[in-house]
Amino acid sequence: MKFDVATPKEDRKLDVRELLRRIGASDRARLLVCGSTHAGEEAILADIYLRLKPLHADLFLVLVPRHFERTKDVTRALEARNLRFICRTEVKMDAGDPPENLDCLVVNTVGELRHFYREAEVVFVGKSLTAEGGQNPIEPAALGKAVLFGPNMQNFAAIAQMFIARAGAIQVADAADLEREIGRLLMDSQCREQLGRNARAVVDENVGATEKTVEMIVRQLEKGDLYLAPR
Q: Is the pTM of this model over 0.85?
């Protein structure tokens, strides 16, 4: 039933590409969007970015921590690696000259993740590599994006398995595996696009899950095959 809740709405309030231009990013920027990240994941993702950047000149890292209160922890990890970054709350859409040669945008706001997913080339869903539980992969999947997540998807195990079984997402074992898969997807547009199509197909097939469940219950009640005990 979570497919109904998480399917993104067409909301164009934030123009991500215009925002990127305001911070000096290339019009050709290829976004690696890492959503709902938790402690420890940003450092891993920053290291992966640094190793992949020489191979993909237009690669741009977007980190969206699950809790914006962790912004200082995230920026410390970036500073320790000499990455040039800006926080979303520092971006002024009517500002003058943009900064130069940024590597990363830290989205320390609420409610904007879906906009960045929409522009992503590759998506990593957080709380799945260094923390347990995972986050819901449906939103980027519904947008037809190439989605990856780590081994810890306990809170969304059934949903994750649906995508994996249909080749609609990639589950990585560890940080090294994540780096390999991101690199492969950046190199192989056909693989990336097919992964996104498969992901979107899984979502499309499951939208309306709530209505289908209610209809099934009603049919069983009408047939007398289901008994609801009085409370």
A: yes
